[in-house]
Structure formats: C-alpha cells, structure tokens
Write a structure and sequence with these properties.
Helices cover 10% and strands 63% of the residues. It is built from one helix and eight strands, in the order H-E-E-E-E-E-E-E-E. It has an eight-stranded antiparallel barrel with strand order 1-2-3-4-5-6-7-8. Strand 4 and strand 5 form a beta hairpin.
Length: 192
C-alpha cells in the first residue's frame, strides 16, 4: 500500500513541477494546486451473518486554475476494501478522474466548490453490498467541498464525491466517499 501512496505523491509532484515550467499567456494569472486526502474512517457495513465490509479511500489530485472561479483537475483514488472475519478478503482498486471545479467564493480566503468529471476505474459497487473488481468501468463524478485556509497556501480540504457507474453491471450503485485532507494552493503561477 505504501508503494501506491508513494507513486501517487511522486506523480502529483512531477505534474506540479512540470506545470510550473509552463510559460503561457492567460487572461487570468493561472496557478496550480495539489491535494491529498484520506477517507480512512471510510465505510464499515455489516453485510449479514457477522460479515463486515470495510473500505478506505486515499486520493490525490493536481489542479490548474484557469480563471478566478474555474479549475481543471486530474485525480487518482486508491480504494482498499476488505471483508472480515476469515476468510480475510482484501482488494485494491483504482479510479482516475478528469474534472472541472467551480469556486463559488473566489474573493474569500477559503473555497467553497462543486466538481463535475468523468472517471475510469475498476471499483464496482455492485450487488449484495460487497464491492468487487470489474475492469473498464466508466463513472460520472460529482461532488462538493470546502477548503479552509489554515496557513498561507495550506488548506484543510473537506469534500464529498459521488461516482455513478455509467457502464457496467445492472446491479451497480454509486461509489460515494467523503474525505478530509490537505490542499496546497498557488504552487506556481503562469507569467504573462
């Protein structure tokens, strides 16, 4: 698991540094951001007969502000899912998203936002409340959140997202997750 988290961190850092080198002319001085969130408390669900399903989500995203209100994002979710008691079944699923984010209070030191995107992944919330791996799924993602500034460019990120499976089994239902994490804003600026 540490390997997946390290990979996400490195990819986010590389994306941020690569974007920092970009020199574009923009109507609005653009900037980049990086977030890392955890829904460790996640979901614990009694499926029946003393069987419990536990789920944790780790996510990271890299964003690029294109105006005072709009940003584009690339996001990766790692979902750890296990069933207890024995036999101990554990799976790791991935979800990758491209989305746009709208900031409702651009002049505030804090951010209140809504997000809409399209994702691909292999986490199927299907059937009898026991998620499974099902490659090639497509989701529409929508959500909202708030970033509360705690120091200069550092924010506490509290968000909720719903992922509706568009392609896949008929018994599929939403994969929903609430996260708490850190958000770093204005990591770089594009000069005019």
């Amino acid at each position: 698991m540490r390997g997946y988290l390290s990979l996400l961190f490195v990819l986010g850092l590389i994306g941020t540094l690569a974007a920092q080198r970009t020199r574009l002319t923009a109507a609005y001085p653009s900037s980049g951001s990086f977030s890392f969130g955890v829904a460790y408390f996640g979901l614990t669900d009694e499926v029946g007969g003393g069987v419990h399903h536990r789920e944790r989500t780790y996510l990271t995203n890299v964003g690029y502000k294109i105006s005072s209100r709009w940003s584009t994002l690339i996001q990766a979710n790692i979902i750890r899912s296990n069933v207890e008691p024995e036999p101990h079944v554990q799976t790791t699923a991935l979800l990758f998203t491209g989305s746009v984010q709208h900031d409702f209070v651009p002049d505030s030191p804090h951010r209140l936002f809504a997000q809409l995107g399209v994702a691909t992944g292999d986490f199927c919330t299907c059937g009898d409340r026991l998620p499974r791996i099902d490659p090639g799924l497509v989701y529409v993602q929508y959500g909202a959140g708030i970033n509360v500034r705690i120091w200069r460019q550092v924010y506490i990120d509290i968000a909720f997202e719903a992922n509706t499976i568009l392609s896949g089994p008929e018994d599929a239902y939403n994969y929903n997750v609430g996260t708490v994490g850190l958000h770093f804003e204005n990591l770089f600026s594009v000069r005019r």
